[in-house]
Amino acid sequence: MPLPGKMSLMTTLATLHVRLFTWRRGEPVGEDRSGNRYFKERRPPPDRRERRWVLYNGEPEATRVPPEWFGWLHHNADAPLPDDSRFHKPWVKEHQPNLSGTTKAYRPPGHTFQGGQRAAATGDYEPWTPS
């Protein structure tokens, strides 16, 4: 959980609410490689399906949920995929966080932050300039 000084009051209250809800009504289902913990509702009412949620290990970012747990969270599967599933491929890369808006975001050659100069075009490009 982030330091309280770094969160707004609303974020702190929302985090506290989720933790209390998890403690009172949550049943642990499992944990992924990143340390995210997954829960389901202990006793869901008979007129609706059970609630499922994740407590992130660190910064809450939806892209950190691996595919085997994504399907379970969204009720596409009754259980997460086991580690020995045929759907796990050796060529799948490890998770990389969304870097948009950070200093590590991709900036193509010619971007203002990359010097503002790009390689010359092949001659078939003429930039528009207002008259």
Describe the structure.
With 131 residues, this protein is α+β, with helices and mostly antiparallel strands. 18% of the residues lie in helices and 11% in strands. The longest helix is centred in the first third of the chain and has 17 residues, at 9-25. It has a three-stranded antiparallel sheet. It has a domain at 33-95. A hairpin with a 5-residue loop joins β1 (26-31) and β2. It has two helices and three strands; from the N terminus they run αβββα. The protein starts with 8 loop residues before the first helix and ends in a 58-residue tail after the last helix. It has helices at residues 9-25, 67-73; strands at 26-31, 37-41, 52-55.
Rg over CA atoms: 22 Å
SS summary, helix count: 2
**What does the overall shape look like?**
elongated
- According to DSSP, the number of beta strands is 3
Overall average pLDDT? 84
Name its key features.
3 strands, 131 residues, alpha+beta, elongated
Quick structural gist:
With 131 residues, this protein is an alpha+beta fold. The protein has helices at 9-25, 67-73, and strands at 26-31, 37-41, 52-55.
Please outline the helices and strands.
Blueprint: H1 9-25, E1 26-31, E2 37-41, E3 52-55, H2 67-73
Antiparallel strand pairs: 1-2, 2-3
